[in-house]
Description:
By secondary structure, the protein is of the alpha+beta class.
Amino acid sequence: MPVFIVDATAGDVPEVQRLARVIWHAHYPGIISVAQIDYMLERGYATEALAKFIGTPTARLLLAVTDAGERVGFAAWCLTDHPTEAKLDKLYVLPEHHGHGVGHALIERAAEQTRGAGAATLTLRVNKDNRKSIAAYRRNGFNIREAVVEDIGGGFVMDDYVMARSL
């Protein structure tokens, strides 16, 4: 089934929030606790948090939409404080659509847009125990640049790899 990658609008935010809840609760148990999942969803997917990716030339929120109009995934990127570097801040696809090129299409659109915004490198963070996603990122040209541990409050930490890809 073909997918189209489109820029999200403010009206798409509730759907992105719904997709995030479904995908995170399907994917992350066993990697992080349900309490941490809920904490991170509340912080990272509040309407205000998602609004920063809409309507600005330095960031985008992207939706993967099937030809039937079903929204099956999303990604978000932003330019960073480092010259010529952008961050893929979010990349999620419904589990039933894994392996069909949806994530690849989202990454390629983000790469195209970030390159157009002046970036030469695209980075992301991924949990060190998220082996399936690490493998997918490697297939899409990302390599581990460093390991980071960050206290995110609420008694939780993010224990991640930073991965990078040249554009």
